[in-house]
Queue: 3 jobs
Job 1
Amino acid sequence: MSVLAIPFVVLVTVIVGSCLQRVSGMGLGLIGGPILTLFLGPVEGIMVINVLACINAILTTYSMRENVAWDKWLRIGPFMVLGSIPAALLIARIDTSALLVLVGAALLIALGVVVFGRKFVPEMRGTGPSISAGILGGFTNTLAGVAGPVITVYAQAARWPKSILAATLQPCFVIGGLSSVLTKYFLGSGGFEGLHWLVWPCGIIGMCVGILLGKKIAGHVSREKAHTLSLALASLGALSALLRGISTLGA
């Protein structure tokens, strides 16, 4: 693969993911996590998506700030830091092939929980479930670049109004992305040394383009359709990462 192919993949992936996240509340981590894992590896790929998802969520939080329920965020967001620590320690102790399998499997499980969770997860009340959702969301975000599925299922079980769900997810992604990067970096389980410098400007440009496109189509594409497309694309990427990891185990 040519030197410029990776930055181009990052550009296209981030445009699509940011656009769908602006419309449905999730997308960048769901789509970017498995795709960048395939092209950059399970450590660097998720580190890049953690950084970009954090920046994207900051911008999206500002644009959707009127609908953010900060009291609900306080019962989830800070506890994501606790979940990021064991995930970072796990990443430091397993090889690349096993990590690919783990990332792909974690993504598929998370996606399955989103698809079937609303049918089987009972109504939740109190602080215990919200704290658990924050810890588990921090773990999956650090490991696989996705916190949205876990928090979305909890929010549905807690009967959050739809009007605040997509907006309140964004500051959760901010603290999730920040804690994921910092814990992996300082615990020695991740870094950016091997990345081409064009990855970052391509990621930022893709994010800005995606958010602008998302704003334009938000009134024409339903949140449910955008959410379904995000899940479908993420499932294909997660399955590809899982199969690649299995094929290289023991190689």
Job 2
Amino acid sequence: MKEGLFFLFLFNFIPISAQYCCTEIGKVLHYTTIDKKQEKTLKDSALVRDVIHENERIVVDLRWYGDSYSPTQIIDGTNRETFIYRKKTGITEFIALDAEVENTEAKLDYLSKYPQKDRSRAEKEYDEYSKYMHAEGRISIPIKENAGMDEELPPCKYTQKIGPMRMKASLEGKYKGKERVHTPAGDFDCIKIYTESKAKFMLFSEKEYSMSWYAKGVGIVKEERYNKRGKLQESMTLEAIRKQGNN
């Protein structure tokens, strides 16, 4: 009986340990970013705003706050990122842009401005509005525990339409093995991922090259961005992990 309970415990514990994101509501991740190009040092914070436990997955809502390093002065953040831990595969998916979520939230916001009795009219008006402003696709990175060296990420694309204008983004990359990373917040065993991302808006286009390190129970602990010649332009490092409101 004890042996059976042990294996049941082990079976339940292993997937949880593979979450490459923080799943504790109210935890604040503090980062320092050094911008070599503009010769600036920035302090940013990411708050675990919400965690939803479902049968097959855990969804983490992360909100970023620019230049707000003080743990006692966290204000509402609009820069949103999502982590989804899928229990069956053990993969943590980092989602930077998601058209399905954005379209749903835009529709709910639009309909909320109408009384319930005008719901039918509001739905029709939103259908017309969505032809003017709409998004498609998703930019995401699956963080795999046992990915092979130089195994390629699934390429992904995202498009946002605003009238005649289009904003397009795409991402591809490779897994670069595992590496132990030293930060002011501690030492972490990380999965290392290289990405190449492109963004295009009207006549302007930009390409970014990044190396990111993700740790279990935390998420991103270090990130470096380079120009096309491989020169380091910006680096971000985890400085501390605190509970919201605690010094």
Job 3
Amino acid sequence: MSELSREPRDEWADLLKEMAESEADPARRAFLEGFPDGFGLVDEGVD
């Protein structure tokens, strides 16, 4: 995923954030919250 351009990465990160916010299961929520960093959707030092 780190090979994607900025726009698709941002779209994926936004979708995962929405999914995490609506997830009731704490383990699934934690996975979804950590996914963007773990799979290269977020650049180091950039919000």
